[in-house]
Amino acid sequence: MAPALENEISQFRELARHFFSRFFDNDLVAINSDDADMRATVVNILAMLAAPGMLLPFLFLSKYVKLQDAPMYVRDLASLGEKEFFICFSMTVMGLVTVIEWEMLFPDRRDYANLTPLPIRLRTMFGAKIAALLAFLTIFSVAINAFSPVMFPAVVTQKGSLMTVAAFARCHIVSILAANTFVFFLCVAVQGILMNVLGYRVFRRVSPYVQFGLVALLILMFLLSGRIVSELQVHAAINPAAVYAFPPLWFLGLYQTQLGWTNPVFRDLAASARLAAGWTTAGALATYLLSYKRHVTRSLESADEFSTVPSSMERFVGRLLDRFVVRDGLQQAAFYFIWKTLTRSRRHKLLFAAYVAVGCALIFEGLAVLVARGGNSWMYRPIPELLPAPLILAFFILCGMRHVFAVPAELRANWIFQVSDRGEARRCLAGVKKAMIVLGVIPLFGLLLPLHVLFWGWRTAALHMLFGAVVSLLLVDVLLVSFEKFPFTCSYLPGKANLKVSWPIYLFGFTTYVSAFLTLEHWMLQRPLRFAWLAAVVILVRLALAVYRWRVVGHDVALVFDEQPEPLVRTLNLWA
After folding, report:
1. What does 275-326 look like in DSSP terms, one character per residue?
2. Fewer Cβ neighbours under 10 Å: the N or C end of the chain?
C-alpha cells in the first residue's frame, strides 16, 4: 500500500473516531462529568432505550396466547397496532436524539480551527464525518431494537417454526431500520437546506426554533400514533387521508408487504416508505455535500457575537421592570441574569424548548381529537378537553425553567457570584421567583387571553385566565420551596434525579395536577362566586409552604454553588 494512501486511511480512522466521540461529548450528555461518568451516562441511556423492546413483548403475551390456535394471518392483523408502536417509538427516539445532536451533525468551529491547518484533505474530513453519522445511526438503532426483533415475532407466531420467526424478525428489522434512516436523514436534510438557503448568522438564530418545531412534531407524532393506526382499514381500497400522511404507517405498510400482504393500502404505504427513505437519504447527502465547504468558511469567519447595546424597546421594558417589579438591586441582578442566559445560551434554550414542545404536543393532540370529531361548536364553550390547556402549558414552562436553572451556563465563571455573596439569599431568590412569573406566567396568559375572549366571551375568559394564573403562581411557589441556588451558577449532577426510578412519580404528579385543577375549575365556572374558595386555598397553601420552608429548609438560607452527591452512608446526627 502506498504511504500516501495508508496515511489517508489512518487519518480517516482517527477522524471518524473523533467525530463519533463528539456526538456523546456534549453539554446535554456530560455536564461537569469526567469520561467515566459520560460513558456511564451513555450506557444508561442506551439501556433505557432498549428496555421497551424487552418488556413490552411480555405485556403482549397474554393477547397472543388467546390467539395461538388462530391462523397466522389473523395473528398478523391483530399485531398491526404493536408493530406500528415499535416503528413509531423507534422513529421518535431517533428523531429526538438527532435533534439533540443538532450542533454535532456538522463539524463545529473548534474542529475546523484545529483540523484545517493540518495536511488533511477535505474529502477525508467529509468521509469521516459521514462514517461517524452512519455509526451513530447504527448504534442507536441497535440499542432501540436490541430485543424486539426476536421477542416480538416469537410472541406473535407462538407455535410457528424457526424459519417463520426468522422471516418475521427480518421484516421487523428492515422496516424499523428504514424508518430510522428516514427520520435521521430528514433532520440532516432540514439542517443542510437551512444552511444553504440562510446565511450562517441567520441560521444560528433560526436553528433553535427549528429544533423546537421538530421536537414538538416528533412528540405529537408519537401521541397521535394510536389514534391514527385505528383509522387504518386493511381491506378498503381507499383509506382516510391521515393514514397516507402519517410516516409511521408508511413503514408499517413496508413491514406488511415484506410479510407477503398485497392489499392496496399496504402497497401504497410501502411505496411511500421507499420513496421517503430514498429521497431523504439522497437529499441529506446532497445538501450535506453542498453546505459542507460553505459551512467551513462561514463558521471560521463568523463569530457568535451578542449585541451589548439594548434596543429602545428593551430599555423601555427594563425601566418599567425596575420601577414596578424588581426595585431591589439583588433582585435585579438575579432577574436580568436569568433573562440574558435564557435568551443567549443555546444549551439552555434547547432544554427549555424541549419542555415547552412537550406541552404544546399534548395540547395539539387534544385539539386533533376535537377536529377529528367534525364541526366547530367545541370552540365556543369551555369543554373539559380545552380547559386544561393553559395549566398544561404553564406546568411545562415553569418546570422547564426550574430545570434549566440547575444547569450551569459557565461553571468556571461562578467565582464572581461566590465572592459577591453577602448572605442575602432571600433577596436573590425573590428575583428568581419574579423572573419565573414575568418570563413564564405573564406572557403565557397574556397571549392566551385575547384568544379566549374571542371564542368564550370576556367573562368566562377572564375567570379561566384568573384561575390558571393563580394556579401557576402556586406552582412557582412549590417549585422554589427548596431552591437554594443562584440560577446557572451551581455544579450539576446529571444522574442525581434518577429518572429511571422517579419518572412514575413525575407522571403521577402531572396527571394529578391536571385532573384535580380541571375538576376544581369546572366546578367553579358553574357558579363564579365559588372563586372565593380559590382565594382561601391560595392562602392556606402559601402558609403551608412558608411553614415547610421555615421548619425543614430553614429560614437562614445560604446559596449553594457546589451540588454534592447523595452520601453513601447517612447518619442520624444523634449527639448531645
Report:
1. HHHHHHHHHHHHHHHHHHHHHHHHHHH-------S--HHHHHHHHHHHHHT-
2. C
Inform me whether the pLDDT recorded for 566 exceeds 60.
no
Q: Output the CA–CA distances (angstroms, integers) from residue 532 to 429, 432, 523, 535, 536, in the order listed.
A: 30, 29, 12, 5, 7
> Three-class SS of residue 542?
helix
* Structure-block grid coordinates of residue 166: 426468522
Query: Rounded to whole angstroms, how far apart are CA atoms 184 and 96?
Result: 9
Residue 37 has pLDDT above 60, yes or no: no
Closest to 286 (Cα-Cα) out of 198, 193, 214? 193
Surface-to-core class of residue 438, CB atoms within 10 Å of its CB (0-12 exposed, 13-18 middle, 19+ buried): middle
What is the mean predicted confidence (pLDDT) over 500-516?
76
pLDDT digits (tens, 9 = 90+) for 297-344: 555 555 544 455 667 787 888 888 888 888 888 888 889 999 988 888
Contacts (Cβ under 8 Å, ≥6 apart) of 383: none
SS3 content of the chain, % helix, strand, coil (to 5): 75, 0, 25
